[in-house]
């Protein structure tokens, strides 16, 4: 796991999705949950409620490192499913105006 103190210096961002979503991603690109109608959902329902309350469902979630708790939980809860880990250079995200923040937006228990 990367050193959390250097989180702002990480080179890549990661997004985990079901292999079933790959055709749609190749055809139409990554889309936010708010812009999708048909897709294989791998998200945690409690996290979804919090993301929606903060209007984060309008963004595609990425993580700073691949072996994060969310990805691990998804794979453990769906042992027969296949997943794809999409990585994007942080510099690409910055050049394209993505909102990249140095901590998880749901990290605060009060949210």
From TrEMBL:
InterPro entries: DarT. The keyword Cell membrane does not apply. Residues 11-111 form the DarT domain. One of its GO terms (molecular function) is nucleotidyltransferase activity. Keywords: DNA-binding, Glycosyltransferase, Nucleotidyltransferase, Toxin-antitoxin system, Transferase. It holds the Pfam family DarT. Belongs to the DarT ADP-ribosyltransferase family. This is DarT domain-containing protein. It comes from Pseudomonas syringae pv. coriandricola.
